[in-house]
Amino acid sequence: MSKFVWFEYVSKQGQQAQGFFGEVFNWTTKSVPMPQGNYTMIAIGDRTIGGFIAAPGASSEGAPEHAHWLTHLHVTDAAKAAAKIRSLGGKIAKEPFKVADFGTMGIAADPQGAAFALWQPASTEAAPAPIEGSFCWNELTAADPDAAAKFYAEVGGFEIEVMTMPGMDYTVLKSEGVPRAGVTKPMMPGQPNAWLPYVQVKHADTTADKAKRLGASIVVPPTDIPKVGRFAIFVDPNGAALGILQP
């Protein structure tokens, strides 16, 4: 099933980020032993939804120096997906590699430069429905949304649906008839081609105000989307953008 299954916060200021997001979303952490050292998972209640990892450095894996979120695309065969990405003009920044007994991971970039990870889990189970504090949506900013959507349809097996919204068209990536992610043109000048995860919240205005008090910059204030909900986008104190959505 085509879907985005994991979200990692990549930063050199991991401890600061953990404190910030703990205050904003009530996230906690869970340390998991790995061969290369402990891995810090993001937890909301008893559910793990992502992780905190250290930035690899400017020359390693093509990753930006500033803090950012790395979205993971579920694939059935990471090696075949990597080959497909190359054939479609994308890049493989890190070849697929085993992550203990959990699965196989690779790091890639689409032809327009947006980074994402491949995740081939060792075992699969149905993803639970989003809850308050968990990731609920994933959105790609792309200069050419049509080309980006076709790329991810080829790599991930998504179906494409273009929706007409006030003042714009919005492309939805679906699998088994369920919306999994969106693709849109940049909303602001200079906005990079990149994935933007969204966290489900009870009150978008209250959450945005709290993030701002804790040092975040609000780049899109709480705004209503007809028949969807109320959303906002902020940049945290370390420089990573994140969306929030009140369904």
Structure description:
The longest helix is centred in the first third of the chain and has 12 residues, at 14-25. Helix content is 18%, strand content 47%. The chain has helices at residues 14-25, 78-87, 145-156, 204-213, and strands spanning 4-11, 28-32, 39-44, 47-54, 68-74, 91-99, 103-109, 115-121, 135-141, 159-165, 168-175, 178-184, 194-200, 217-225, 229-235, 241-246. Strand 15 (229-235) and strand 16 (241-246) form a beta hairpin. The strands form 2 sheets. The chain has an 8-stranded mixed β-sheet, covered by helices on one side. The protein has an 8-stranded mixed β-sheet with strand order 10-11-12-9-13-16-15-14, covered by helices on one side. The chain has 4 helices and 16 strands. The protein is of the alpha+beta class and 247 residues long. The chain starts with a strand and ends with a strand.
Q: If you average the pLDDT, what whole number results?
A: 92
Quaternary structure classification: single chain
Helix content: 10-25%
Order of helices and strands: EHEEEEHEEEEHEEEEHEEE
- Tally the beta strands: 16
Uncertain residue segments: none
Rg from alpha-carbon coordinates: 17 Å
Strand composition percent: over 45%
* Biggest β-sheet strands, sense, barrel: 8 strands, mixed
Q: By helix and strand content, what is the structural category?
A: alpha+beta
Q: What is the overall shape?
A: globular
- Kindly, what is the distance between the CA atoms of the first and last residues, rounded to a whole number of angstroms? 24 Å
Major sheet: order of its strands? 2-3-4-1-5-8-7-6
Number of helices: 4
